[in-house]
Structure formats: structure tokens, C-alpha cells
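Protocol step 6 of 9: fold each sequence in the batch and record its C-alpha cells directly after the sequence line. For illustration, a two-sequence batch is reproduced in full.

Sequence one:
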Amino acid sequence: MLSARLALLSRDEDSFRQELKTAQLWTARYFDAKSNGGARMLIGLKKLAASSISIALPDISPSLQAVRNYRLTHENAKGRAMKYLVWILILFAAAVALTTASHNPAYVLLVYPPYRIELSLTLFVMLLLLTFVFGYGLVRLMLAAMQLPTYVRQFRLERAQAKARELLDEALGAFFEGRYTTAERAFRARDGVG
């Protein structure tokens, strides 16, 4: 029995069962198996041999996932700080370039006979950038307007699915509560929505 106890503590199921079989044989051989105590001992040993000693280890995957999420969040925070630093450097570089360009005496001459337009280089570059930003915004606006029917269709579909899900929940709740007419009405309403 000591060996069976050690096998149980070390979770060695084969050794545990073998030691219990040996204990059953010794009990049957050296004790009266027909007596009340001997019969109870054999029944107890059989029950122990039939039981499983394997212990299901807890699943640690949710904990590992939480650690991974924390690490990703932490790494993303570092990446965001670096992104802000780069943007600040770009802003300072643009300020220096603008200051340098504003003291530039150069000019741009646009000629379209009989017209002639003379602009400072700084004003020309600013107008060029403004034209680019305006054009980019206009293109984005046109793309968004072309995608609008798809977005509206998707929104309506999701809203109809949510309404059908809500009616189904109401119908099932009424059905399980025993309110069958309310459940039938809710199912019919759901069929009309879905």
C-alpha cells in the first residue's frame, strides 16, 4: 500500500493500478475474503483501482494571451511615442525650411501672353501645397461618396440583423416563459424582418 500511495503522489497511474492489484491479491490470499472486513477491503481496493488519478491541469492559455496583449500594448505605446517624436522633428524641420524660404528674394514669373504674373517663391510654394491638399481632399471626398451606397447597404443589413436577433431573443424568452401567443407573434415579426 505504501508503493500505491507513492505512485498516487507521483501521478503514476500504471504503477498505482498495479500496486492495488497486488494488494487485492494479498488480501484475497492472506485474509478471509468472505468475512465482513475482508469483503469491504476488497470492495474498497476495487473502487480505488477503478478511479482515475489523473488530474486535469488548468488551462493557462487565457493568462498567456493576457500577457501577450499587455506586451503588445506596451510595445505599441513605445511605437506611438517614437511616432510623436518623428512628427515633432518634421515640424521643426518644416519651421526651419519655412523661415529660410521666407527670407529668399527669389520670385516666379508665369507668362501666358498677354498676361504676366510675378509671385514670390514662398507664395508660389504655399499656393502649390494648398492646391495639392485641396486636390487630395477632393479626391478623398469623391471616393467616400462613391463608397456611400455600400456603407448604407451594410448599415441597413446590420440593423435588420440586430432587430431580428432582438425579436428572436424576445420570442425565445416568451416561449420558455410559457407565453406562447406572444412568442408566436414575435416569431412572425422576426420572419417579416429577416
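Sequence two, same batch, same settings:
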Amino acid sequence: MARAVTVEGVRFERYEAFRKWAEGQPGYWILVRGVPMPSPSPSRKHQKSSLRLLLHLVEAVLRPGLGEVYAAPLDVKLGEDTVYQPDLLVVLREHADRLRETHIEGAPDLVVEVVSPFWISWRSAMTTGEQGCENTGWWIRRRGWWRCMDWRGSGWCF
């Protein structure tokens, strides 16, 4: 299992402070309960999987005008001290008030994460009820199976 890399002694309680700091850092960063962690560059296989799913989501959601579809990197602010960049996400038209110029405020209607070793950190925070993730997520392993999960109040259910 891959271990998450953190920046020693650096913590953030507010999203805006984290965002300002991350802009001056190389690569992409997420924030897990106040601790910044680098988000590694995806592999070619990961990119291909994401692209295929993105094309389907564009056809199913964006073209008919049901909502917006986004690909990483785009911050999803689940709390002042927790910010992620899922591979793909959907915000339906009726939740357009969550869209900000620089990020999504709160849980998207759909999150798609193509599984990688770094995914463990992402998943551990998404399984806490305190983050308000009461929507649907697709966790996809590149070896050919898909797992759809729904938030049931106390955790993700298959």
C-alpha cells in the first residue's frame, strides 16, 4: 500500500490559505483534514480510463443540458480543511449554486475516481460522514471492474 506524503509542519484551517499556498507549489495538491498532500501525475492507462468515462458523461449529462461535467484538476471543497481533486465529477443543473470560479463548494452529484495507490487517502476521507458526501461515487479499478457506491449516511455502500 502506498503511503501518503505530507509536508512536515504545514497545516491549513482555511481553504483560501491552502489555495494560495498550493498555487506556489509544483504539481497538484489536495488537503486532508488540514494536511496538504501532493497528488501524483496519473499514468497513461489512468488517463485513457478517465477519458473514456468523460466522453460518456459528456454525452449523458452535458449534451442534454442536465448539468456540468469536469475533469481533474478541479478542487472539491468538502470543508475548510478538506479539499480533493477527483478524476471526474458531475454537478447537476439543480445544484449549480455549488459552482465557484475556482472550485466546487460541497459534494458534487457524482464523483468518479479511477483507482490508483494514492486513492487510499482519498477514500479514507470520503468515508467519513462529517464531510457531507451524501451523493454517489464510482470507484473504478483499471483491471476491468467497476464498483458503484452510494453514501448511506454512515458510509459508502456497494
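Proceed to step 7 once all outputs are recorded. Observation for sequence two: Confidence is low (pLDDT under 50) at residues 127-135, 150-158.
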